[in-house]
Design a protein that fits this description.
Chain B: GO terms for molecular function: flavin adenine dinucleotide binding; oxidoreductase activity, acting on the CH-CH group of donors. The complex is a heterodimer. Chain A contains ten helices and seven strands. By secondary structure, chain A is mainly α. Chain A has a domain at 150-285: Butyryl-CoA Dehydrogenase, subunit A, domain 3, CATH 1.20.140.10. Chain A has a three-stranded antiparallel beta sheet, with no helix packed on it. Chain A has a two-stranded parallel sheet with strand order 1-3. Chain B has three domains: 7-88, no CATH class; 124-235, Butyryl-CoA Dehydrogenase, subunit A, domain 2; 247-373, Butyryl-CoA Dehydrogenase, subunit A, domain 3 (Up-down Bundle). Chain B contains eleven helices and eight strands. Chain B has helices at residues 7-23, 35-50, 69-81, 90-103, 106-117, 234-246, 253-270, 278-303, 311-334, 344-353, 362-373, and strands at residues 123-126, 142-146, 151-162, 169-175, 186-192, 198-203, 212-223, 227-228. In chain B, strands 1-4-5-8 form a four-stranded mixed beta sheet. In chain B, a hairpin with an 8-residue loop joins strand 6 and strand 7 (212-223). The chains are: A mainly alpha, B alpha+beta. At the A-B interface, helix 6, strand 7, helix 7, helix 8 and helix 10 of A face helix 7, helix 8, helix 9 and helix 11 of B. The structure holds flavin-adenine dinucleotide. Flavin-adenine dinucleotide (FAD) binds next to strand 1, strand 3 and helix 11 of chain B.
Chain lengths: 289, 390
């Protein structure tokens, strides 16, 4: 029994973090949102060179032979650093040995294909595209898509949950920094209990979300349970983060907005909370939720 | 990273499970807050102790079997899964004993621990006072030196002391230096609750039972041998128990996992009549699993020599709210039957309601999380108008 990341896993996460920060992943995301995908594609390539898309491909097939825990480590960072592009599709749903950017629709969990404007659609015919509240995501209708097996779908759901935890952590960290420095009524707003207690609740929610996601990676609990809780925790982080920032948090220009909108999108992506709650209950009781 | 148990741990689990299956009373015992229930709970403790299962993590000399932290969590999981009786000895074995191990003299360890392990002597925590709740350090009960008799004389009043109605001994903090303020000048004392000068007055709780009591001290003599830790160091000595209470030991995940499993059973029975309760049922189960997995992370950290620290406050808020959520979901499933006392759900619910209050209120825990973990500015303290935000 050793329920903590190994040194290698921690180092792997740090390597991804370093690379993304050095590449100014936030500027990359903003460019991507405005239609300039070139910096995003370049960063994708660098991350793919680390082996991200081949992480869970077995070694004898030329992949890194990583575990689902490794996948969680990577996706938490991708969420925290605001990665753009179809990572869930290319690294979790249908891992790509050669680092290719691919996308797919997988109804009912993911009825649209993300980022089909740059990624290769794995199956089916692309239809109309729709903008998302997350300006870094574009969603495309697909007809005639092939189905995925449960293991592939579960990997995607797990990756999405891990990304939510990472995004939630980022919002919390930025919010804590902000409330320590913003002053009203002659004091840091972070000294007021109404602010402190809300942020404490976010800390608590995220502290319990991570073990669930890791536990799901180890097969201890259904991935749906991790997705439900990670969504709730990240969403709490987003709501609270916005509130403690006041009006500045409500602007598109302030970077916080990128994570707020990412979280809102991921809460219902790869299965809504209602869908996953039903699935948990069905797994546990055999009765359809 | 893995959650695998060793062959020894699995053997321990199997042994505990088998013993509990064979020995847990078929019918729940009457409430431990009644005279009859109290005696039966004490008998149960003796039975556990005979098997060295009452305090598995303690050394063998004092009734344990030197179980590791992992084994302790396993034990708790099995214990609650089996529906075994509540632990009448809990405040002694979980809150006081760790302090006696750390700060007690060998003589105190030999005198107090074995009878605590067998449940022969039940201990009550006497910290809170009418004017000292969350701000415990403002306590006013006094201890005055009596050199002639070689000890101390206690005066004052403690309150909300769980199980003091029937308990045998108490442990509490008193101001031993009248010139001191706040955290300084407090000393930790142990005293028999039938000592001369002590009056225990039971207090009926929300459910009408005398689950806690007031304790009045009128010139109660305590010999030096019953001072725990150094004179004047009571605050630091006491705070090592506060960590236990908020952190791992008082509320293990087994308790909530078992309750969540019972909730799923109830859902199978009643869910068709109350489909709108579905989300609450699922969330309760997920919450219990979150607590279980989080605890394995804590156990890993502690086993590697880490400390609980302020993380105990994260824990405390979570389990206390989880406990209420599980029971609320149960009551919602029961519909109009919820208010009836013939299922365990209402009883468990009423008990759960006190969780956010005892062991340091959840507001105080959130302050701790915000200040010590997130690094936000400290609370202003002191009388209004004379605030010191240091
Ligand atoms: C079932 C039960 C069993 C108990 N058993 C024991 C026992 O065995 N031994 C024992 O010694 N005590 C026991 N207690 C007492 C318990 O420790 C106290 O109730 C607790 O410390 C709170 O103190 P209080 O009740 O005086 O509330 P107060 O401290 O008066 O608090 C009232 C409210 O004000 C809030 N508040 C106080 N200060 C602040 C602040 N700085 N910021 C924000 N909010 C604040 C609190 O959070 C709470 O909501 C028990 C209590 C219960 C309910």
């Amino acid at each position: 029994m050793k329920f903590e990341l190994t040194e290698d896993q921690v180092a792997f996460g740090e390597a991804i973090t370093d690379l993304m920060r050095a590449s100014d992943s936030v500027a990359v995301a903003r460019a991507w949102a405005s239609g300039d995908t070139a910096p995003g594609v370049a960063l994708w390539k660098r991350l793919a060179d680390l082996g991200l898309t081949a992480l869970v491909v077995p070694e004898d097939e030329g992949g890194l032979g990583g575990t689902l825990v490794d996948l969680v480590v990577a996706f938490e960072v991708l969420g925290r650093e605001l990665a753009v592009g179809p990572w869930i599709e290319s690294a979790a749903l249908a891992p790509q040995l050669e680092g290719e950017m691919v996308t797919a629709a997988a109804a009912p969990l993911a009825p649209y294909a993300a980022d089909a404007q740059v990624a290769r659609l794995l199956s089916g015919v692309a239809g109309a595209s729709h903008p998302s509240i997350d300006t870094t995501r574009s969603l495309t209708e697909v007809t005639g898509a092939d189905a995925f097996d449960v293991a592939a779908l579960d990997r995607a759901v797990l990756a999405c949950a891990a990304q939510l935890v990472g995004a939630g952590e980022r919002v919390l960290a930025d919010s804590v920094t902000y409330v320590k420095q913003r002053k009203q009524f002659g004091r840091e707003i972070g000294s007021y209990q109404a602010i402190k207690h809300q942020l404490a609740d976010v800390r608590i929610a995220l502290d319990f979300a991570r073990p669930l996601v890791l536990g799901a990676a180890l097969g201890e609990i259904p991935v749906s349970a991790a997705k439900v809780y990670a969504s709730d925790a990240a969403y709490l982080a987003a709501r609270t983060g916005l509130q403690v920032h006041g009006a500045i948090g409500y602007t598109a220009e302030f970077d916080l907005s990128l994570w707020l909108n990412r979280i809102r999108a991921l809460v219902t992506a790869w299965g809504t909370p209602a869908y996953h709650r039903g699935r948990v209950l069905e797994t546990l009781t055999g009765v359809a939720g | 990273m893995n959650l695998d148990l060793t062959p020894e741990e699995l053997a321990f689990q199997a042994e505990v499970r088998a013993w509990l299956e064979a020995n847990v009373p078929a019918e729940p015992l009457p409430s431990m807050d009644t005279a009859e229930g109290w005696a039966l709970h004490q008998e149960w403790e003796a039975k556990l102790a005979a098997e060295r299962l009452s305090v598995v993590s303690w050394p063998r000399e004092v009734g344990g079997r030197e179980a590791s932290l992992v084994e302790w969590v396993i034990f708790e999981e099995e214990y609650y899964r089996a529906g075994a009786p509540g632990r009448v000895s809990q405040n002694g074995i979980f809150l006081l004993a760790p302090i006696i191990f750390d700060h007690g003299t060998p003589e105190q360890q030999a005198r107090f621990l074995p009878s605590m392990a067998t449940g022969e002597k039940i201990w009550a925590q006497a910290w809170s006072e009418p004017e000292a709740g969350s701000d415990l350090a403002s306590l006013r009960s006094t201890a005055v030196r009596d050199d002639a008799r070689g000890g101390w004389v206690l005066n004052g009043q403690k309150t909300w002391s769980s199980r003091a109605t029937f308990a045998h001994w108490g442990f509490g903090l008193f101001r031993s230096d009248p010139t001191s303020e706040k955290h300084a000048g407090l000393t930790y004392y142990l005293f028999p609750l039938d000592a001369e000068g002590i009056t225990v007055r039971p207090i009926a709780q929300l459910d009408g039972e005398a689950g806690f009591a007031e304790i009045f001290f009128d010139d109660v003599f305590v010999p030096d041998a019953d001072v725990l830790g150094a004179v004047g160091a009571g605050w630091n000595v006491a705070m090592s128990t506060a960590g236990n209470e908020r952190g791992l030991s008082l509320r293990s995940p087994g308790r909530f996992c078992a309750a969540a499993d019972r909730l799923l059973e109830l859902w199978k029975d009643r869910g068709a009549d109350a489909p709108q309760v579905r989300d609450a049922v699922v969330d309760a189960w997920i919450g219990a699993q979150a607590y279980r997995l989080f605890t394995w992370g804590t156990v890993t950290r502690l086993a590697d020599g880490g400390e609980m620290g302020a993380a105990g406050s994260v824990n405390k808020v979570f389990w206390s709210e989880l406990d209420i959520a599980i029971h609320e979901a149960g009551l919602d499933l029961l519909g109009a039957d919820a208010e009836l006392l013939d299922t365990p759900w209402m009883d468990g619910y009423v008990f759960s309601l006190s969780g956010p209050i005892y062991a340091g209120t959840n507001e105080i825990q959130r302050n701790i999380v915000a200040e010590r973990i997130l690094g936000l500015p400290r609370e202003p303290k002191g009388p209004a108008g004379k605030e010191t935000a240091k």
